[in-house]
Design brief:
Elements (H helix, E strand, L loop, with lengths): L3 H10 L3 H9 L2 H4 L22 E2 L3 E2 L32 E2 L7 E2 L8 H13 L14 H58 L11 H11 L10
Length: 228
């Protein structure tokens, strides 16, 4: 295992400027092992279809400048594992001699609980026969399941938005009704008070002076006391 001091020396004296630039922005490009690439969530979305670990090299030999992979004159004799199957490549790859790195996607497609949920859904919807097993699940089944779950989440979110909007409208309507009733009841109370105190008031708009006098007398309002 290389020490931090030795690694810093290699980066400073052996790496190209392009490699140092990449390391500054994305250190994991050079420091993370393939088994550390998974982040708890499938980052490939609908394109995810790997159910088995993918064997990959730990890196490549770079051309002068450090931006492009060096190429051998001829492809390797043995094919290299890739996401689309074994491929003959001339890229100068670097592999561990005593171990193998594997990239594993850990989304629901590759967990026991996730596979069980997908299988139950495809059987329930009639896409698969009732005696189907998890081993028979294909990438389209997972894509269909994720699409269905995404649609359900959108529908649920839309329903919740409508319910919140309806609740807000109902609350606002109730507040408006309460305000209207309070205003109407106060107006009637002012009329009754004015009649009791012999204030001249008709059926139309209540004069401001009468409303002010009522507020002073009945509501502890700040009016002009001399109007009595």
């Amino acid at each position: 295992m290389m020490t931090e001091t030795a690694a810093a020396w290699v980066r400073e004296h052996a790496w190209t400027s392009a490699m140092r630039k990449t390391f500054a922005s994305t250190p994991g490009f050079f420091t993370a092992c393939a088994c550390q690439y998974s982040g708890g969530e499938c980052r490939h979305g609908d394109r995810c279809h790997r159910r088995e670990p993918l064997v990959i090299p730990i890196g490549s030999v770079m051309q002068r400048g450090g931006e492009y992979t060096a190429l051998h004159p001829e492809p390797y004799q043995h094919p290299t594992p890739t996401a689309t199957g074994p491929q003959h490549t001339a890229h100068a790859q670097v592999w561990y001699a005593d171990r193998t790195c594997r990239w594993v996607c850990d989304c629901e497609c590759h967990t026991a609980a996730g596979r069980a949920a997908v299988l139950a859904w495809v059987i329930r919807t009639g896409l698969y026969p009732e005696d189907a097993t998890e081993d028979e699940l294909t990438p389209p089944a997972y894509r269909a399941y994720r699409a269905e779950m995404a649609t359900r989440r959108r529908i649920q979110a839309s329903r919740e938005r409508r319910e919140r909007k309806a609740a807000d409208l109902a609350e606002q309507a109730a507040a408006n009704d309460a305000e209207f009733r309070a205003t109407r009841d106060r107006r009637e109370a002012i009329r009754e008070w004015a009649a009791e105190h012999h204030w001249p008031i008709g059926k139309g708009r209540i004069p401001a002076a009468v409303a002010e006098a009522y507020a002073v007398d009945q509501e502890d309002g700040l009016g002009q006391g001399v109007i009595f």
